[in-house]
Design a protein that fits this description.
about 80 residues, 4 helices, mainly alpha, globular
């Protein structure tokens, strides 16, 4: 939601946005945020969701990345 507010990648509410669309939009504006988005996607979506990693440190890292993304997007509004 934070990325949608800043970058407006989503065409309409019914359309799913691919992570590549976010990465393209973010890469044009903020390389550090791009790094957080890529890492956050890997940890929160792939490792925790698909791989089922249950390591607390991995989960904590994912939540920290999500908070960093939200905070950075808030400063861009």
């Amino acid at each position: 939601m934070a990325l949608d507010a800043v970058f407006q990648v989503r065409k309409d509410r019914r359309t799913r946005v691919n992570i590549d669309d976010y990465e393209r939009a973010v890469s044009k504006r903020d390389k550090k945020l791009l790094s957080w988005v890529e890492s956050g996607y890997n940890v929160m979506h792939l490792y925790m969701n698909y791989d089922g990693i249950q390591d607390k440190n991995t989960c904590d890292s994912g939540f920290r990345l999500a908070n960093d993304i939200i905070d950075r997007c808030a400063t861009m509004l």
